[in-house]
Amino acid sequence: MKQRKLKFASALLSSGWAEDVTLTIDAHGMIEKVEAGSSDKTAKTLKGIAIPAMPNIHSHAHQRLMAGLAEVAGPGADSFWTWREVMYSFALKLGPEDLEAVAAQLYVEMLKSGSTIVGEFQYLHHQPDGSPYDEPAELSLRCLAAAEEAGIAITMLPTLYAYGGFGGQKPTEGQRRFINDETRYLKILSSLDKASKGHNLRQLGISPHSLRAVTRELLNEVIAGLDRLGRKTAPIHIHVAEQTKEVDDCIAWSKGARPVQYLIDNFALSQRWCAIHATHMTADETARMAASGMIAGLCPTTEANLGDGTFPADLFLKNKGAIAIGSDSHISVSPAEDLRQLEYSQRLRDRTRNALASGPGKSTGRTLLDAALTGGAQSMAQKVGALAPGYRADIAVLDDGHPALIGRSGDSALDSWIFSGGNACMRDVFVAGEHVVQERRHIREEAIEKKFRAAVKRLTK
Ligand SMILES: [Zn+2]
Fold first, then answer.
1. Domains of the chain
2. Does 418 score more than 80 pLDDT?
3. CA 30 to centroid of ligand 1, rounded, Å
4. pTM, whole model, 2 decimals?
5. Pairing of strands 295-298, 323-325
6. Does the N terminus or the C terminus of the chain have fewer Cβ atoms within 10 A?
């Protein structure tokens, strides 16, 4: 790619809103220069409102296949655990081509929603019978290929899943495609390390599935393995305290420690750690987690869909905790909806409004966007989240001609996008300066959708 210039009538810069902004983007897709009040005639001019694109930090790509197919009542009370059985039945069917087709479609949908990075928490590893593929990282490599086809950046987080419950319990039959010991897991990590090196849209980290699925000793060994690859600041994501049953099981097993408390007491937490969900915390855990630097990776639409509970966002943000958002099960793929649901969860709990705005006169949408951009970039270990020199040119452009945004500008446009118009307001998206969504169309969407259609027909019959 050659150096290029893009000009926007309005843009959200690190210094705030600015007009007539020209961004100069270098040959590697990084922002070189930002000029407000620019009259540069050589720049490509785009209509709309430019904002930094939002990382989608938590994805299980294969779950896109079943979005909407677990909404029928079962014979008894439905819960996360009955949903998980339905999910396992789909997870057992997918082959490598299927996963690649499903992931590519999902990544197109993410790009069209204004997200330019996916954090792929990838726990499908083996063949349907549980035996490894010749290349043990086969399925994670398929996700990398899907990301490349869609043109989205990816932070690959291969999942370490060794046990079926707290204290090293035996995995169940339904978990056979997920399970690895240390040796096999490190082989997967090594393959993905090779595939990611020198690639400007790929990062690598790890995802111990949960405290149910690993032991402290095993996780420490694997972190040491990651460090030996020269990735000492690489992300570590873990599901934690999503369900009250998980909290109860943790307390029973550890003789008193709740899951977040256990993490804080047993690991050297820092900004490289991301706690996915962290729904059920005491006030003390909330303050300690915020102080540890560990990011809260929130998936509000999935958490609502699964009936998980309500994250203490007000308290966590007051304690200067860092948050990021992800679409997890992909019941909805929309950063606007996830931020909206996060705010609404607090309003419904406390019977209030503008619960998370940073102060009087401050926009709720702007507060949430700023927080999730900073935490999202950090949790993905990618240099994004701001339209400023030295950051990658990952840009989302809101359509100021959409009916939801008529007469809006600045923070009121963000509020109207997040709380009203949603994905329909998103018009153009750039990844590293590449124009991948052009006037609501992804540049390869027909071909990708065709393969997805065939895969869904095959897998849901
Ligand atoms: Zn998840």
1. 4-52+387-446 (2.30.40.10), 54-380 (3.20.20.140)
2. yes
3. 31
4. 0.97
5. parallel
6. C
